[in-house]
Amino acid sequence: MKSSLLGPPHSRVEAQGARGNIGNSYSPHGTDRAVSYEEFGGLEAYGYLTGTFCADLDYKDIEVYTIRDKPVVISGKRADASPNVPRLKETAWRTMEWTVSTRDDLVREVSEYRPLDSTKVPQAQILLLGPAGAGKSSYFNTINSIFRGHVTSQAVTGIAPHSLTNKFRRYEVRSGRDGGALGFRLCDTMGLEDGQGLGVADIPYLLGGNVPDRYQFNPAVSIDPSIPEFKVKPPLAETIHCVTFVIDACVMSVLSQGIVDKIKGLRTKINERGIPTVVLLTKVDEVCPEVAKDLSVVYSSAFVQEKVKELSGRLGVSVSNILPVKNYATEMELDRRVDILALTALRQMLRFADNYFDDFDEDQEEEHDGSDVEPVDIIHVSTN
Ligand SMILES: Nc1nc2c(ncn2[C@@H]2O[C@H](COP(=O)(O)OP(=O)(O)OP(=O)(O)O)[C@@H](O)[C@H]2O)c(=O)[nH]1
Ligand SMILES: [Mg+2]
């Protein structure tokens, strides 16, 4: 079945009379980039971009070569998607109170968070890693919005042929416009891409705090330790204390093997350093129509649960460490349910950062003279 589509990436399009989302994903045929096209809870179609991006970068030509029912697994059984398949489970697979007081308690808990005094670290450093377009910058914007009290978009977000974020940013979050800085930073990175973008060789420098704020990434070249601003002997306060992988629920099923391998390679490096990892599953509003209507049913959604299980299997991460979120993308006003999911995830990251501090080996706090920095894998940590 072939048909041509013209539509904005990562948004709804019309095809074969059905509505769905497009997400760029993998490149099986050289310069062609395949897309997944997914109807809410129903059809799944695969196609290739047949044209180039138009001048305004907003539209892609897409030739769909197949459309088929999207397999859905409910309670461990594979079932064809159909209107008869219950989208919501009778019993939620995670519990959550969606009340105003839950939101307020989370805001308070996160606002009051500070790393243990003994660490001499003023702010936990959380590194956001993930494929291009997964929602890393949007997650920072979401958290920033919550504490600003209105929707903001400090970090640039959007869809582009390659990662839109091209600078390393250690974002601080303030409580209110003139309030003090909170006890964490969200470190935003360039997206992971097949054959380019952030790579496994870059990760030791990012984890080790060697890379300065606003470092300009080069998608074709690994981080260069010979740049003048490269921090040879960063303090513990600047190293990474928790890593968050950000994965787009819409396209995770069709992530290329190259990207999955890259993520696994990064995880190995991160685990070797005992740094805890969390996975954010973004865009859950785009994989389940019930969730799109009301985010508070996210933990009852069979589709979201299936995505969580699938991701767990694909990346080898435990289900409990995969946290569904919906970032602010088009909203003008804050939404309590968006805040609760985003803050629950952040609280988990901060708890994990605390675990890292608890486990931090005193031996690693020894001074290094910094003269022995090697191209990869050497991270110098001191407490100054
Ligand atoms: N519906 C929906 N859209 C989202 C969500 N998160 C992000 N988006 C949209 O997805 C697109 C990409 O988001 P970004 O935050 O720029 O993604 P990124 O991971 O920073 O991408 P790069 O910087 O290019 O690597 C933007 O158009 C966002 O508005 C979400 O949870 N739901
Ligand atoms: Mg970004």
UniProtKB/TrEMBL annotation:
InterPro entries: P-loop_NTPase (IPR027417). This is Interferon-induced protein 44-like. Residues 1-27 are annotated as: Disordered. The gene is LOC118431765. CDD domains: Ras_like_GTPase. Coiled coil: none annotated.
